[in-house]
Amino acid sequence: MKGFAMLGIGKVGWIEKAKPVAGPLDAIVRPLAVAPCTSDVHTVWAGAIGERHDMILGHESVGEVVEVGALVKDFKPGDRVIVPAITPDWGAVESQAGFHQHSGGMLAGWKFSNFKDGVFAEFFHVNEADANLALLPDGIAPETAVMLPDMVVTGFHGAALAGVCPGDTVCVIGIGPVGLMSVAGANMMGASHLFAVGSRPICAERAREYGATDVINYKTGDIVQQILDKTKGQGVDRVIIAGGDVDTFAQAVEMLKPGGAIGNVNYLGEGDFIKIPRLAWGVGMGHKMVNGGLTPGGRLKMEKMAALVEVGKLDPSRLVTHRFHGLDKIEDALMLMKDKPTDLIKPVVLID
Ligand code: NDP
Ligand code: ZN
Fold first, then answer.
1. Ligand 1 test: best mutation among 38, 150, 205, 246, most atoms within 8 Å of CB?
2. Which of 86, 178, 216, 318, when mutated, tests ligand 1's pocket best, judged by the most ligand atoms within 8 Å of its CB?
3. Residues of CATH 3.40.50.720 domain(s) within the chain?
4. pTM of the full predicted structure?
5. 2-146+315-350: which CATH topology?
6. For the chain, which terminus, N or C, has the lower number of CB atoms within 10 Å?
7. Residue (of 169, 172, 149) closest to 218 by Cα position
8. Cβ contact 60:34 at 8 Å
9. What is the pLDDT of residues 95-124, one digit of tens each?
């Protein structure tokens, strides 16, 4: 089969590989829709997780089951499924400890395009199918559903990591597709004043649609000062980081009230350290929590996120700005993600 792969840091291309084989608990899936991610860009062009050779890229997909192992109970060939970006080993001790994202080691629940071939291929392998696949509800189109495995669940995870509570003032730094879903998540969790930081007009418009009360442009002035100006010098209760770089933490700490929390879902592709300013962190005693986490995976999370779409409380299709048709268009979609034209939020590739 053919797949679109990372050949080495900074290099991508099409390769031929053997079709994967399902173990007793596993499934083989054919993609119906896939989406490239900013994380694919960090992985290939920033070398953020180190060198990888001939590893098929991609971790965002919905697909059709083509084969299941003998012990799979709930799925059969022909089922249309949502495939989470994170497909943990659910029996691992880290999963038992509540952190399935790190089953088998730091970030090791993230298998696709990290430790094994990803979804940008004619077929891909899903471990523990009963625990890691969710049926695609009939009413959700694949192009919408493909926002669930990563964009929706990651954005909402940022809001959960920041601990948003009803009435909190919240700042979301970065309003690409992930940050926009953090805006939606924080809004559902009860944010009052909800500040969204970005520069591109299309993202600003979506942020307002998803619940932002104010949009702040980081290119036209210091965002800490802008937040302090809008909050009578108080700052915010919660900061969700979904964009920026290692310096963004300093800004998040500075705009946070004592007792507040930061939820980072940004993938730090470069730099050795993040920055926590000593004075703004209360000389070590400010009760300002800093949390950062990999997106959750597994079946239940996908079913819950899909339920939000099914009942009409969330419309992630508003993230999709570019559509491609055919597996061979994956390369174009990924390059679009790398180049980030101003009218892009998220591209999808539909495989008919
Ligand atoms: P985008 O690149 O589409 O969006 C980034 C956002 O950050 C944009 O709104 C951009 O503004 C803004 N931004 C850039 N620089 C700054 C800055 N200096 N200060 C403030 N804002 C800034 O990324 P995605 O939404 O696709 O992904 C966001 C991050 O989440 C990525 O790092 C991605 O790898 C990561 N991620 C993490 C996951 C996890 O499991 N934790 C899962 C999936 C993704 P504008 O473009 O408008 O100028
Ligand atoms: Zn992703």
1. 38
2. 178
3. 155-292
4. 0.98
5. Quinone Oxidoreductase; Chain A, domain 1 (3.90.180)
6. C
7. 172
8. yes
9. 999 999 999 999 999 999 999 999 999 999
